[in-house]
């Protein structure tokens, strides 16, 4: 049984770590693009941000004044048992969000869309978001918090099969140029791309690709992995660098996640995480152990549902069912 006290304590610590400590994989990736940056203003911004990250960790203060909108991702082992059940888990995560807003502190960014009601704790209607995934043969739960920028940095387009890879690249370029020119995202960033699924699914996949995979990770499908590499090179060749200034450091990494879609379309979404790539994960075991890390390990063969279990099911059994 995973104790509720352990969940509460862990969730609070995750909120602090995400707000303050840059994940090592992203920090290494950012330093690589900074070393290659040729634009003067872009290079200045990158140097300032790297110094800011060091200062934030030393002073234990949030690395960015806009701390985004905290959200949670929970991966539950099939044999995991939680004290109080999933309802208690959600209450604890919401409570940790509210408490961390004061204790870290985080900027209270959540308001009602119409009345602008603000409870000053980042909690309200459908906030914070909590998404779930599951894993077989496990009795642990993974809890990940992501502090995602909540204004822009996201776009969607319904492409068609005939658009092909060239259409994907064209929309990718259109989106990044729009982000840079209009100040709709904080670059350089990890860019997530969702391909396929329904409209809502492709948006979810793209955001997860941006927020829940580490720099240097490649999709297990070799052709998709090759496209990820191509998009990184393409994104850094448009003449934009940090925060939209002239440069060559628009993309730290690009991750693509796919889902089967309607035969007549090819939905696509593009998401920029942000220059402050904020995520933290902990695994809570049934024996009370808690292990902290920065790789969410969200995508697994099971979570991607790569197998097609019913491909050879006899037609007669389907009819009888």
Automatic annotation (TrEMBL):
Keywords: 4Fe-4S, Iron, Iron-sulfur, Lyase, Metal-binding. Belongs to the class-I fumarase family. GO terms for molecular function: 4 iron, 4 sulfur cluster binding; lyase activity; metal ion binding. Signal peptide: none annotated. This is Fumarate hydratase. The lineage of its organism: Bacteria, Pseudomonadati, Pseudomonadota, Alphaproteobacteria, Rhodospirillales. The keyword Hydrolase does not apply. It comes from Marivibrio halodurans. Residues 9-282 form the Fe-S hydro-lyase tartrate dehydratase alpha-type catalytic domain.
């Amino acid at each position: 049984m995973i104790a509720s006290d352990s969940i509460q304590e862990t969730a609070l610590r995750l909120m602090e770590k995400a707000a303050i400590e840059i994940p090592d994989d992203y920090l290494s990736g950012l330093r690589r693009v900074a070393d290659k940056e040729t634009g003067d203003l872009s290079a200045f911004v990158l140097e300032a941000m790297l110094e800011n990250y060091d200062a934030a960790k030393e002073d234990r203060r949030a690395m960015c004044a806009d701390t985004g909108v905290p959200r949670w991702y929970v991966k539950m082992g099939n044999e995991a048992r939680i004290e109080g059940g999933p309802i208690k888990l959600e209450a604890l995560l919401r409570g940790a969000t509210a408490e961390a807003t004061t204790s870290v502190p985080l900027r209270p960014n959540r308001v009602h869309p119409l009345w602008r009601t603000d409870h000053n704790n980042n909690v309200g209607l459908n906030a914070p978001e909590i998404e779930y995934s599951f894993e077989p043969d496990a009795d642990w739960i993974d809890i990940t918090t992501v502090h995602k920028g909540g204004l822009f940095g996201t776009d969607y387009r319904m492409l068609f099969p005939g658009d092909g890879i060239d259409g994907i690249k064209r929309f990718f370029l259109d989106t990044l140029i729009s982000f840079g020119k209009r100040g709709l995202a904080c670059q350089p960033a990890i860019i997530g791309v969702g391909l396929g699924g329904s409209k809502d699914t492709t948006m979810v996949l793209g955001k997860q690709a941006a927020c829940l995979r580490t720099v240097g990770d490649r999709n297990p499908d070799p052709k998709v992995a090759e496209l990820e590499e191509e998009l990184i090179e393409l994104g850094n060749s448009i003449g934009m660098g940090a925060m939209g200034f002239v440069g060559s450091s628009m993309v730290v990494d690009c991750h693509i996640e796919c889902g089967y879609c309607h035969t007549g379309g090819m939905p696509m979404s593009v998401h920029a995480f942000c220059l402050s790539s904020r995520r933290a994960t902990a695994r809570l075991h049934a024996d009370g152990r808690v292990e902290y890390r920065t790789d969410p390990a969200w995508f697994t063969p099971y979570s991607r549902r790569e197998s097609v279990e019913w491909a050879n099911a006899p037609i007669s059994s389907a009819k009888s069912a």
